[in-house]
Amino acid sequence: MSFRDDCALTAAALDTFACEARARAGRVIDQPPMAELSERLGLAALIRDGGLGGERLAAFLSSYLAASTRLHHPHYMAHQVAVPHEMSAIAALVDGFMNNPMAIYEMGPAAATIEMTVLNWMLEKAGWRPQPMPGTAAGGDVHGGGVLTHGGSLANLTALLAARARVAPAAFTDGTPPDLVIVAPAACHYSITRAAGIMGLGQRAVRMAPTDAEGRLVPAALPACLDQLQGEGRRVLAVVANACSTALGLYDPIRAVANICRQREVWLHVDGAHGASALVSRQHRAGLDGLDLADSLVWDAHKMLRTSTLCAAVLVRDHRDLDNALREEASYLFHDKAEPGFDFIHRSVECTKAALGLKVFFALATQGEAGMERYLDRQVALAKAAAAYLRSEPGIEVAVEPETNIVCFRFEGGDALQLALRKGLTGDGRFYISTTEAMGRRWLRIALMNPATTLTDIEALVGALRKFLPAAGAQQDAR
């Protein structure tokens, strides 16, 4: 069979997979033992003998998709991963076939141009000046800048490297000074402490910012925290604000924090991996008020912009900070040459970089900004309706009023009960949710990513959880 035939076969299999999932058929999640699954897929024989195509491809896809988690199923409510728009998935196919590593312009002019366009759209949403396209008249020297990376963890690392370049310009060549610290709320994403470890600061260099009972950063207490660190002989590399927090989906008060950071000449990094997509919504963008005063922002398109994984933006108010973050020497790449476009490699930890902008562009170009706004507003409205319903149910407590599409709740009982309920639910496979710790307790957590999920699905979820209560309670008592 030809490439075209195999593509048609694959598209048909994926369409059937998605249609069945949207119709709420079958399980959301199934986790067979890995050894059993390897045998079922015939992996060893295919590696040894080859021949994947035609009928063998159809058989393989049937087994592969049967063992894959169905994000398109309305009962998928577990993690902050997009149910991608079909056109974004098509963009991933185009990129995979073209295979243009576009970190240098000559290896992917079209992909680099689209990435620049997407980044400038994001910069404008953040309230920063877009970067003039090469070949256009540039008015003034200072403008925003950015790069797309493979995930929010890498994006947070890149943003903090830019902050380090401003605070300690010689760190890239001489090493990270030991007096640097990062100030972040306890509810920050684990990639912040991971970045501190990678950068040579060590995870202990992440100092906890003062927060309220729900984990939001408290601006009034921040100056005293900064003063204490200064008294200890520490320099603050950056203050990190959540937009929004991973566990509860709450926004830190960015404007008040930014004003303090401006007064103290401290870098403010906003981790908007999940919540920055609210910038497309006139109804919900107020959660990011003051973002224009920050120094850097991370924004994951593969969360609430319906983009297939991975596509995360690192954005800075002043492009020079990002351009100074990394240093490199490679004579086969870096030399004097005529430059009709822009090389993103100077801003990226990655050398070989996929055409990430194509995936978010296809999602945007299909739906337009209005379509993205409708989707985001719908998901947040569903979260608020779900929280109201959950509060009305006996024996259920809701953690906080949702500010995004994330809802945390728990049944009467200890933390072990919540984990046992989730274990039973996941084993059954007809619903898929997650859990989290916040405010000193364990919560069941739903992230409403699927545009097909309705309040009826939430009601059915609660019904399913109640069926597991007796067994879960017995497990809790046994502990």
The CATH superfamily label of the largest domain reads: Type I PLP-dependent aspartate aminotransferase-like (Major domain)
Query: How are the strands of the biggest sheet laid out side by side?
Result: 1-7-6-5-4-2-3
Number of strands: 11
Q: What proportion of the residues is helical, as a percent range? A: 40-55%
CATH class identity of the largest domain: Alpha Beta
Descriptive overview:
The N and C termini lie far apart (58 Å). This protein has 479 residues and is an alpha/beta fold. The strands form 2 sheets. Strands 1-7-6-5-4-2-3 form a 7-stranded mixed β-sheet, with helices on both faces. The protein has a 4-stranded antiparallel β-sheet with strand order 8-9-11-10. The longest helix is centred in the C-terminal third of the chain and has 37 residues. It contains 16 helices and 11 strands. Helices cover 44% and strands 12% of the residues. The chain has 2 domains: 68 residues, no CATH class; 269 residues, Aspartate Aminotransferase, domain 2 (3-Layer(aba) Sandwich). 44% of the residues are buried. The chain is globular and about 55 Å long.
Topology:
Blueprint: H1 3-22, H2 34-41, H3 43-49, H4 54-66, H5 86-98, H6 109-126, E1 145-149, H7 152-167, H8 171-174, E2 180-184, H9 190-198, E3 206-208, H10 222-231, E4 235-242, H11 254-264, E5 268-271, E6 296-300, H12 301-304, E7 312-316, H13 319-323, H14 356-392, E8 396-398, E9 406-411, H15 415-428, E10 434-438, E11 441-447, H16 455-478
Parallel strand pairs: 2-3, 2-4, 4-5, 5-6
Antiparallel strand pairs: 1-7, 6-7, 8-9, 9-11, 10-11
